[in-house]
Amino acid sequence: MDILRFITAGSVDDGKSTLIGRLLYDSKSILIDQMEALEKQSRLKEDGEIDLALVTDGLRAEREQGITIDVAYKYFSTAKRKFIIADAPGHIQYTRNMVTGASKADLIIILIDARNGVAEQTRRHSIIASLLNIPHLVVAINKMDLVDFAEDIYNNIVIDYSEMGKSLGLKDIHFLPISALRGDNIVEKSENLSWYHGETLLQLLENIHLDNDINLTVPRFPIQFVIRPQTEELPDYRGYAGKLISGIYRTGDQIMVLPSGLKSRISSIEVGGKQVDFAYAPQSAVITLIDDIDIGRGDLLVKEDHLPQVNQELDVLLCWMDKKPLHPGNKYILQINSLTIKAMVREIEYRLDVNTLTKNEEVYEAMLNDIVKVSIRTAAPLPFDSYKDLRVNGGAILIDETSNATVGACMIQ
Amino acid sequence: MKTEYTVDYLDQLESEAIHILREVAGQFERPALLFSGGKDSITLVHLALKAFRPGKFPFPLLHIDTGHNFPEALEFRDSLVGQIGEKLIIRKVEDTIREKKLTEPRGKFASRNQLQTYTLLDAIAEFEFDVCIGGGRRDEEKARAKERIFSVRDEFGQWDPKLQRPELWNTYNGKIHKGENVRAFPISNWTELDVWNYIRREKISLPSIYFSHDREVIEFEGQLVAYSSFILLDPSDTILKKKVRYRTVGDMTCTAAVESTAIDVDSIIEEITVTRTSERGETRIDDKFSEAAMEDRKKNGYF
Q1: A328 close contact with B: CB closer than 8 A
Q2: Which of A39, B35, B296, B303 has the most neighbouring CB atoms within 10 Å?
Q3: Which of the listed CATH numbers 2.40.30.10, 2.60.120.820, 1.10.1740.10, 3.40.50.720 matches domain A221-306?
C-alpha cells in the first residue's frame, strides 16, 4: 500500500466539490456523524437532498459565502492506496492556493464541463499543472448526464484537450467521462457510458504507477539538524539528521558537502533508530561521516557523479502570493529545503498570462497571483537543481523579512 | 511492483512526521511537545525518539493538566517519561483558575477544556516557548482540515484562517515575530486508522483505558460518560456497568466511552474498520454543541 496525493482543479460550477463528495461517499469514507451534519445542513437548503458538495465545505466563513477560500485536505483509503486530496479553489483570484495544493501533488484531476468543453479555466489549470510539473494528469469530462452521455461530445473534447496538452508538454494524460452528481464512472462502471471501456476514476487513481516519480538516481540529503548527545558513551558522536529527498546513500559512499565542497565518506546510516547498509528517498535518516568536518543545518550532502548547480544567480518562475506587490530590487529570504539565505529579486523579465501562456514584457511589478519570470541574486552561492529535472530540490519559497509571510513560490529554471 | 526501494505508506507518513519534528528542532529556539497522555501524543513521543536518538529530545514535554484526567492516563504518562528519561513540565488548570480568579465552568459535565487555553498560554509565556508540537490530525474535523502543518498564532494564541501562510513542497516557514508562536502538527496527514496501524506495527504501549474494561457510566444523549466525582448526577441518572473503551483520551468530563469488547490493538483496528462514526463525533461531547465549535476554539488559542 502506498500514498497518492492529488489535487482537484475546477470551480464549484464544474462539480469539483460534488466529485470529491462522491469519491468519499462511494468509497464509504463519509462517516455517520458527518453524514448527519450534512443532512442537517442540506435540510436548510431548498430541495432537501443530500448535497455531496457540502462534504468539502470547511470553515463557517466559507459556508456563508458558498465558496472555498483555502486548500482543504481530505483523506480516504482503499485496500490498494491511501489518498490525500488537496481541494483547492479554481478561480483566478485563488491561483496561489492552487499552486500551493499542486506543489505536493502526484496527480491532478482536471474537470471539464461536457457542455462547455475546454474552457479558459481548463487551460489555466493545465498551465499551472505544467508549471508545477505534476507527474500525472486525469482529465475528467463531467456532467455527461447533461449531454445524454453522447460519445461524440466526449471524443471531441478529448481531441481538443490532447492538442492543448501537447503544446503545454503535459505527460501521462488520462481521459474519462463521468457524472459526479449521479456517480457514473466514479467508483462503479456506468451503464449509461457503456461505450467507454476504460477504468473508472477510482480504478485509475488506484492503478496509476508512482514508483518512477521518486528519483533514486540523483542523491540529495539536506541536513536539518545535528544530533550531538555529548554523553560519556558518545562524547564525539555527530549524526546528521535529515530526509533523503532523492537518491540512495550507502555506508562507505564518498560524499561532498555543499556549498562548502568538503569531502568525506559515510561511516554509518540509521533509519528509525536501526543501523542499515543503505537508505533511499523518501526515508528520513541519520548519517555519520568518517571525518570530523564542520557542517550543519542547511548543508546538502551530494555525490560527485551527480552534482547540482551551485550558483548565486537564479532564473526563477515565480508565483507571487502576497498582497504587497513585488518590485525589482526588493530583498527577501529564500528558503530551499532546510537552507535559508538572503536574496534580492533583480529583474522581472516578463509576466505569464496563465490563460494564454503569452508573455508580457512590459512589467514593472508583480501582483498577488501573478506568475512572473524573475532573476534572483542570493547572498552566497547555493546548491539547487532545475525544478523540471528534480522537483524536490528546485522549489523554493520567498519570505518577507518584515512580515515573515511566505510571499513567493519559486520554480528554479 | 515491490522493489528493495519500496516505501510503505506508514513509512512515508513516519518519514514526513520525523522531517517535520526536525524542522521544528532546526528552526526554533524553544520548542515544547504538548503531551496529553492520549494515543496521538504518545505516537508523537515515539516519532521523536526516532527523530532525535541517540541524542536527547531538543524540547521538554508539556502537559496541561486539567485535574479531570483519567488516573490511568496520568500513571501512564509518568511511567513513559521515566522510561525515556526526558523532561516533563506540568502546568495545572487548577492553579490558573486560582491565580487568575477564573470562573469554574458549571453544569452537569463541567468541562475545563476551554480553560486549558489559559494555562497553555501562561506556560508558553513562562517558558518563552516559540513553538508547541501537537498531535492534531486533519481528518479529525473541518477546521483542522484547512490548518497548516506550521500554524502561526498571535500573542493571544489565536488562529486566523484567512491569514495562513501558503505551505509549499516540504518547505516550512517558521519565522515569527516576538510574542507570536507556532503550533506544529507532524501527524497532520494521518487518519485515526493510520495511527492505530502504526501503533500496531511499532508495538507502542498505550494507557489501559483504550482497551475494553468494566466501568461505571451514565448515559447522556446516547453517549456513555464515566461516572466520577467531576460530574453532577441528576435523580434520573442511572449508573450502569458496561464493558467500554475510549477512542480518545481527554477529560473525564468531556470524553465519552464506546461499548466495546476490544482488548487489543488488532481488535480495535477491526472495530474501527467497520465503525461508521468518526472519532470526534463519537466521543467528544464538547464538539457537538455547535457546527463550528472547533473553528471557534482554535481561533481562541486552543491547540
Answers
A1: no
A2: B35
A3: 2.40.30.10
